[in-house]
What we know:
The chain has two helices and 36 strands. The protein is mostly beta strands and 523 residues long.
Amino acid sequence: MIIYHRNRWRCHGFNCAVTLVVLAVLPVVVFATEPPRLLDVVVEPAILTLGTGERQVTVSVMVVDGDADLDPQSVKLKKVKIGKKNPTISVFADDGQNADAVAGDGRFTTQVFLDTSMPRQRVFRIRAKDQLGNKAVSVSLTVSVGPPLGLSSLPLRDTLNLRLERVFAGLTFTDPVALLQASGDADRWYLVERTGVIQTFFNHPDVSEFTTVLDLRSIVEPLSELDLELGMLALAFHPDFLENGKAYVYYTAETDNGIESRLSRFVRSDEDITFDPDSEEVLIRVEQPRTRHNGGQIAFGSDGLLYFGLGDGGDRFQSQTINSFLGKMLRIDVDGGFPYVIPPNNPFLGENGPSEVYATGLRNPWRWSFDTQTGVLWLGDVGNRRWEEIDIVVPGANYGWPILEGEECAGFLPCDTFTLVNPLFTYDHDDGCSVIGGYVYRGIGIPELDGVYLFSDFCSGAIMGLSTDPAGTLVKNVFVQGGHDPVTGEFGLLVRSLSVDQEGEIYVIENGGSIFRLVPASH
């Protein structure tokens, strides 16, 4: 079960679904002469777990009134609507239980229908007052719909010390941005260089040579020299790559109309490890308004479908534009037809706008991944002026940019948050400047990390993790300190991407061209 509390969720065990959570908010009335006689409103139980679909649930509250003059008809559940009058959804009724006639306390219940058929968040507010008009501090209920996270609920040992170990020291790359292995092949690595080449090398500690398997520098390199967010950005292997030799590449190119992003399919040459450039089939073209915020990740999910994350292209309003691919997560079926087909359960199929869209409201999803145990899609969305965020991506969800940055109103559009999904976790720019999404650790080399989501930041260089404490509250740990000196302003290790091998161990690609592996300090 997930419990979302401001910027925290809680997971108890591995069953996370829909939760109603209590958040205290500021008093709506200031009493100048005497404190309010209506002391408190408490929701009991504080956590209500629902399944999917429209459900009728019972909400119970305890109203504490020191003067025994509570107005029973004033105990109401209101739907929160930004900038509008909050309509009353239900009036609570005294159920006659647990009441204290002397103190005037009473338990009240009501039933309300909540639609949980789609991933979303809904906010309701409970209010009460006494017969003199004194109002209690209002209490909010937030309905969150999301998948099970599968995060570790075990406390991490205080003695857990980790470090980054340089690997493949005989190799140095020019501009690496991604590192991965093909499914079922643990003997070989593939590395993407932003300048437009893909290199491969053997998974051996003493390896000293690599082979170029695809070279698109004539298309990519002139642009990549102009802007650090352009170039060849990602590679994904078909789940049956060892049999069909198909790989998918995401890169930017220049056209007569300006810059465009391309998602292309390449096929491995017969009996060879290289890809034939002439085999390219461009599946998706996206015109870019500017040179930045191009996203950068493509990957196959456990459903066999290809996911493609795009940033807003430097035009923030594209993220909320219905007919645009920008600022969206796309999902396509590359096996069902040519060049691809729309999965029948895509959330926007048959609605206005492109049916490829899986989720909206993203700013710049540079790196994201699927948890190999739960299938949950974890995404790092690069922030703007203040907040970096980690999102759990679910179909049909709107993550708010540029209405929100993190959980704050960004000031670019009216702040109507009623249909938006908050991030799982945020951190401000005191701890970094550009989040690098990572992986939920499922390896065996560091068993204490099992079920911990590992990620980094381009500016801080720190290796961080999200897990839960014994009470189920989401917490952040810093496992490897970053290389940023706040006094001099200089940076040491600049992380470009995290990677994972076939055994679930974590690797780090550094801006200077080196590769590291996360290991125990005693290793």
